[in-house]
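BUG: 3D viewer hangs when loading the predicted structure for this chain

Environment: internal workstation, default settings.
Expected: structure renders.
Actual: progress bar stalls at 90%.

Input used:
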Amino acid sequence: MNEADTTTAHSLSVEPEVMVVSINLNSSTWAAINQHRHFCVNVLRADQMAIAERFAGRGGLKGSARYEGASWSALATGALALEDSLAAVDCTSRTRLCATATRSSSAASGMWSAESRVLALIYHHGAYGSS
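Structure tokens produced before the viewer hung:
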């Protein structure tokens, strides 16, 4: 298992279903995506800030310790989804769009599921908030 907070994750098109996800090239997550060609984007609920903090590596947690206290399910691609996230997007990495010294953007297609009427956790200008 690998985890990361993404720099950006947004829709590129609806038909076909394509999104752009930016990952730090120095992260173990990038190496896993590059090798396995699939991943899950979990959209966290506003009350899941502690999970986001663990994934960002705050507090010094590494590896499997970042997954403790949460339940995970395998999706069709084999990627793991956080069971109580607001939404989970099961992605297959299709194209590496561009890369800089530290970031890569990849076009991915996937399936989307979401719960309505729940606030999403957002990170903007160095602070967490909700939508």
